[in-house]
Amino acid sequence: MLKRESQLHNRDLYLNRLIAFRDTEPVKIITGIRRCGKSSLMKLMAQYLRNDGVENRQIIEANFESMEFRNMDVQTFYEWVKVRLPQDKRAYLFFDEIQRMENWHDAVNSFRVDFDCDIYVTGSNAYLLSSEYATYLAGRSVEIKMLPLSFREFIDFYGYTVRETQSPAGGMRKRVYDADGEMYEVSELFEAYMKFGGMPGIADVGLDTDKVLTLLDGVYSTVVVRDILERERRRGQRQITDPNLLRKIIMFLADNIGNSTSINSIGNTLVNENLLDNDKRRGKPAVQTLQAYIGALLESYVFYEIKRFDIKGKEYLRTLSKFYIVDIGLRNYLLGFRGNDTGHCLENVVYFELLRRGYDVAVGKVGEKEVDFIASKADEKKYIQVTETMSAPETKERELTPLRMIRDNHEKIVLVGSGGNSITEDGIRIRSLTDFLLEE
After folding, report:
1. Of 121, 145, 169, which one is at a domain's C-terminal end?
2. Is the domain of 285 the same as that of 377?
3. Could you say which DSSP state residue 385 is in?
4. What angle do CA 435, 19, 304 make, to 5 degrees?
């Protein structure tokens, strides 16, 4: 008996980006960590096409996770698709996890050249778009970067709705309602989001700690074992061979999200724990080994690296990057559910929200102070601080001082995790973090 399709939840942010490129020449490449919803997004796109009048025979789908395609070479796959193409109408080709087939780019490029078709592919590794392969599709592909659920999507996936109501003081406040009309505070849902994270599969298992941890264990095992260790073997490289060392690096980065981090600081920690050998000639950890492991984690979208930018000098700094983990629930799975380091966890959530909204993001350096994020688009720039609370005067001063030091006229914001209405002080907007996350 074939597997039945599970219910598809809307991911309009990404679906609308795909629709915008419908029937254009570029190959649409959907990237992101495993289990973040790439396959479902392609199904949503196929569903959209059918609802728009496209016939089933025009839609050709192949999932390379299936044994049907596991041992198929590029020539056989080309013929498999060719015999299924309609002769009188445009075809829509959907290829899931295509990087599992060697020389996949030859087939995709041939389809693009030989036939009237619109092509969509997914991949769970940035190696899919590395320079080696990008040359084959240079200028002929567009990347749709997919992330786990935003807070707003998290609420929607669980069947809740957000409504604004009048507060007794005259302002507006947001409340959350379930399908039975029962009301919850936004903070209750945000607490669940910060605990369980936004991997879409958790909506299928419910907010049950044991089930969520089992799901996240599957995500971790799949990413680490399949996407990193197996891929290295397929590439014929021997730099990344030790799963214990890889896990230790993951644990270090997860424990230090939002902290300025260098290769040396990671290496020194691992050397002290006898997990990495010193370079005897220089007395330093094996930097190339560390760079290979961290590079693999970045390629697999487990961690994202953010550079520091000197606001006054107007240049990127080469030292002390920061790393954020793609899903805060995955961090909790690795390190355990603990109450400390809330500030950096909130930063982590804001960083990925800014990426979802299409911003380029950097850490800002102004004098000896630091601004959590500079968020830039072609015609827009924001300076953003993130803090758990502003209740203590010294905390308030710490968050506002770097923003006061910036002399341009771009928007300056402090996002506060708990308490307080939106106010403006010294031209700096102070507002609720959850209000920011729930914006349309």
Report:
1. 145
2. yes
3. E
4. 55
Q: What are the tens digits of pLDDT across the range 297-320? A: 998 899 999 998 887 777 777 777
pTM: 0.91
Residues 216 and 69 in one domain: no
DSSP string, 13-42: HHHHHHHHTTTSSSEEEEE-STTSSHHHHH
| Cα 252 from Cα 231, distance rounded (Å) | 23
Tell me how far the alpha carbon of residue 392 is from its chain's centroid. 33
Query: 13 CB contacts (<8 Å, ≥6 apart)?
Result: 150, 153, 356
| List of long-range contacts for 232-240, beta carbons under 8 Å, 24+ apart | 232/296, 234/102, 235/127, 239/288, 239/289, 239/292, 239/293, 240/292, 240/293, 240/296
Render pLDDT for 238-253 as a digit per residue (tens, 0 to 9). Answer: 678 788 888 889 999 9
Total structural domains within the chain: 2
Are 219 and 225 in contact, with CB atoms under 8 Å apart? Answer: no
In a domain, 310, yes or no: yes
Last residue of a domain, one of 145, 160, 175: 145
Question: Which residues constitute the domain of residue 116?
Answer: 12-145
